[in-house]
Backbone:
């Protein structure tokens, strides 16, 4: 029987700092004032709770995303689209050689609900793990309220395109003020002259203005859909809080400003390249790498995904390449 | 001390862009298919549909918009994003679909399309529009402009990766 919700979560009463502890299979999670502590049968790990909560927020909001979400060089998840691996040291050569690595597979609802409960309990009232560090308070200290509204934001996912009647709508001052770093972005709207009866098909909006009003960082959200081709733009500031390991080719279009990407081998973490993208640049992230971005100023990045669920299997069986184009 | 309230957002254009690059440690630059939309458009003929991104059957095409395009239609939705300049889109509801239902990418229409005018959209930098499936559309631009088109690989998609990508 599959159960969902709070009754499937293995959690303790509040500890001395006021936070609940969570158990998922043989993994155990505990936080104190400054750190998240993770243990498994062959090892233990500690992360700053700031970095841990920012990574956990993305993993939860993206529903484990495409491929691997590395919280850091040790801890992370692999999405199998129905089940999820939670691992420690699996993509770390030293841990594997020392046989300290550990991985367990969970039905997605179990790990999803456990992570959501952990995120909600461990996030204090004045901390928003989706926000730029310059725009939120610190996550440290003993338990001090909660910020459920921030950690359960609805992920924007247009069915056809933002601005189409009945679909996701444009952002306004009422709900999404312009970000401080995008104050100079023009807010003009397209001139749309629809003939009577075609108002639902003659549609356009200002994507750059839409992005200038994003209240989150490093959170790709769907704005237009061509079958499995998804435009997932996002605004980036400071450091991508996870290291994304690809299970397919993923494309980036730098719409504004600049991001530097550290690219490593997906399985070992060995550095492969440093990619600097400036406004107008287009680049692919191969399907066998992991990457982490650095954005000195808030920037606009178009993440372009092929959402086909068949791609990992096509790559595994040699029917699709981990590289974007052959030339 | 710098004014913390003063930020300049840097967009590129045909006249003013700066290309990034790849510092290779243990890889090949071609694995990243790295190009720049404005550089591609600056070396394209008007209305050429040059792929700058490809993921299985899906593509991102850079189109140099200049003058008036031919009429085209497509069996699926497409989405132009203007990244430089100003582009007008005219839309016509065709009396009957002209593109085969399973055809990926757009096809050229000969002459003027037969059907009911749907409307007109004027797009400037940052504006994205819907080109509805089975509508006929035509672009026009008074000065050189650049479109990034979300679509599917079609007969008129141009792939010249070796010319546009870092190697």
Residues:
């Amino acid at each position: 029987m599959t159960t969902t919700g709070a009754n499937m979560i293995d959690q303790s009463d509040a500890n001395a700092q006021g936070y609940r502890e969570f158990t998922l299979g043989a993994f155990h999670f505990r936080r104190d004032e400054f750190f998240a502590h993770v243990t498994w049968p062959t090892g233990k790990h500690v992360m700053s709770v700031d970095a841990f909560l920012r990574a956990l927020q993305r993993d939860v909001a993206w529903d484990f995303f495409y491929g691997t979400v590395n919280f850091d060089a040790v801890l992370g998840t692999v999405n199998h689209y129905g089940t999820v691996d939670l691992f420690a040291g699996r993509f770390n050569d030293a841990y594997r050689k020392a046989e300290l690595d550990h991985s367990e597979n969970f039905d997605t609802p179990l790990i999803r609900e456990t992570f959501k409960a952990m995120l909600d309990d461990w996030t204090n009232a004045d901390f928003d793990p989706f926000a730029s560090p310059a725009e939120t308070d610190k996550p440290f200290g003993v338990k001090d309220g909660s910020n459920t509204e921030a950690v359960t934001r609805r992920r924007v996912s247009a069915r056809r395109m933002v601005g189409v009647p009945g679909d996701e709508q444009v952002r306004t001052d009422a709900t999404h003020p312009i970000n401080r770093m995008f104050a100079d972005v023009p807010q003009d709207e397209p001139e749309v002259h629809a003939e009577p009866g075609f108002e639902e098909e003659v549609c356009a909006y200002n994507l750059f203005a839409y992005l200038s009003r994003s209240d989150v960082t490093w959170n790709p959200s769907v704005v237009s859909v061509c079958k499995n081709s998804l435009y997932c733009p996002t605004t980036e500031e400071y450091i991508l809080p996870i290291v994304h390991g690809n299970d397919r080719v993923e494309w980036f279009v730098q719409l504004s400003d600049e991001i530097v990407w550290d690219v490593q081998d997906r399985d070992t973490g060995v550095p492969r390249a440093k990619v600097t993208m400036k406004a107008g640049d287009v680049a692919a992230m191969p399907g066998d790498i992991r990457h982490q971005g650095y954005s000195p100023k808030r920037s606009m990045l178009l993440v372009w995904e092929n959402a086909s669920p068949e791609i990992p299997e096509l790559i595994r069986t040699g029917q699709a390449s981990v590289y974007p184009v052959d030339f | 001390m710098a004014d913390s309230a003063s930020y300049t957002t840097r967009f590129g254009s045909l006249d003013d862009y700066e290309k990034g690059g790849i510092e290779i440690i243990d890889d090949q630059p071609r694995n990243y298919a790295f190009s720049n939309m404005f550089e591609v458009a600056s070396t394209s003929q008007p209305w050429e549909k040059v792929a700058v991104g490809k993921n299985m059957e899906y593509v991102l095409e850079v189109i140099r918009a200049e003058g008036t395009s031919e009429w085209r239609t497509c069996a699926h939705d497409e989405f132009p994003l203007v990244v430089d300049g100003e582009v007008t889109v005219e839309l016509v509801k065709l009396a009957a679909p002209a593109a085969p239902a399973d055809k990926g990418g757009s096809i050229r229409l000969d002459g003027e399309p037969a059907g009911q005018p749907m409307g007109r959209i004027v797009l400037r930098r940052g504006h994205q529009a819907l080109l509805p499936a089975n509508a006929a559309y035509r672009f026009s631009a008074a000065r050189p402009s650049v479109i990034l088109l979300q679509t599917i690989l079609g007969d008129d998609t141009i792939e010249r990766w070796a010319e546009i990508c870092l190697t």
Summary: Chain A touches chain B through 77 residues (CB under 8 Å). Chain A has a mean pLDDT of 96.
